[in-house]
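Tip: read the tokens left to right.
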């Protein structure tokens, strides 16, 4: 997800696979290739405490991201220091909620992985389309 909640990549695995084992596959599957950022601005990746291990941090850095990995305790302490600041990883949690609004995806009835992946791509495209600002047409309203 980017900062607005637009899905950038999607991987379908079994429910018994941990997220950190699929980190490299997710970062390799990014569909929107962004240009190299200028020197002052870098690509940041916010993650939770499950990505704190050395292999995960190395994978994040090898893909050109600056890792921001915080546990719940760190997040609570930062919130007490700066009450107006919100957590960055909540964007991902909200995006998971948006995917769950597509009832066909909430419970997987598809037997084939490619058809389920296609439905997820369709849901991601709809979510991304909803994020595009639309100016009303004067003639057609």
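Filled-in amino acids:
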């Amino acid at each position: 997800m980017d900062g607005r909640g637009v899905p950038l990549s999607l991987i379908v695995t079994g429910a018994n696979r941990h997220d950190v084992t699929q980190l490299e596959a997710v970062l390799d599957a990014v569909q929107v290739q962004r240009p190299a950022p200028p020197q002052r601005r870098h690509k940041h990746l916010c993650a939770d405490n499950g990505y704190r291990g050395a292999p995960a941090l190395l994978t994040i850095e090898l893909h050109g991201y600056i890792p921001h990995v915080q546990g719940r305790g760190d997040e609570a302490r930062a919130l007490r220091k700066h009450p107006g600041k919100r957590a960055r990883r909540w964007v991902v949690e909200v995006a998971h909620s948006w995917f769950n609004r597509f009832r066909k995806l909430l419970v997987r009835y598809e037997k084939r992985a490619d058809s389920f992946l296609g439905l997820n791509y369709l849901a991601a495209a709809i979510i991304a389309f909803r994020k595009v600002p639309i100016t009303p047409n004067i003639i057609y309203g």
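The mean pLDDT is 78. The chain has one domain: 19-130.
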